[in-house]
Amino acid sequence: MLKIQGLSAGYGNLPVLHGVDMHVGSGEAVAVVGANGAGKTTLVRTLSGLMKPMGGSIHKDGADITLVPGHRRLEHGIAVVLENRNLFTELSVRDNLRLAEHAGQRAQRSQARFTLEEVFDLFKVVRERQGAHVGLLSGGQQQMVAIARALLLQPDLLIMDELTTGLAPVIVKEILAILNQLRQRGMAILLVEQSVAIASEMTDRAYVLSVGKVIHEVPAGGWQAMLSDPSLVRAYLHG
Length: 239
What we know:
- It is a single chain.
- The protein has about 240 residues and is an alpha/beta fold.
- The chain is about 35% helix and about 25% strand.
- The chain contains nine helices and ten strands.
- The protein has helices at about 40-45, 95-105, 115-120, 125-130, 140-150, 170-185, 195-200, 225, 230-235, and strands at about 1-10, 15-25, 30-35, 55-60, 65, 80, 155-160, 190-195, 205-210, 215-220.
- A hairpin with a 2-residue loop joins strand 1 and strand 2.
- Helix 2 packs parallel to helix 5 (about 140-150).
- It is globular, with a radius of gyration of 17 Å.
- The relative contact order is 0.19.
């Protein structure tokens, strides 16, 4: 589904990512984990089309999307939830979702995977607060709106950056339960996350990023071995 080869990216002439290789299969949940400064957000911004790569390639379903601008990547089935969410805080929850619904319809990739009503069923609080201005919601509620909005873009690959940062444990638990439902529906997920505990609970396997390079891969079924080795966690994740 998603194939990244030799990806390099950075700011000005300063490279941050150095020859990153990774892939996400159809319906697979994969994590990218690493300490602060590892290059995780740069990776997300490059995959979402907000940054132009310095080198390498990005393919989705066989199509080269390396230079496809961000607003066109939804046509290739990619939706991204950024760390800062980028919601229209002066608009209501429902208006934010309607805008995404319209964009998803314009992409015209295939039959809609999610309707507005289905999204409301997944996120009960979003239904309850649909008339409220987004700027008046709590951080956890805004995160749910951001995920709901991404789903209405009709992706088959959902990329999420630091999904749970700053959220209360009860909200994190609710969001993870919803993501598990998405996985059961065949949604592919790339979770870029500092919390190894969250990543291990939510994904099949992982890439460990450090100073812009993939330095370790956690294979399918390999999370327990990594988490049970404190020296490994300290070496790779500084934690």
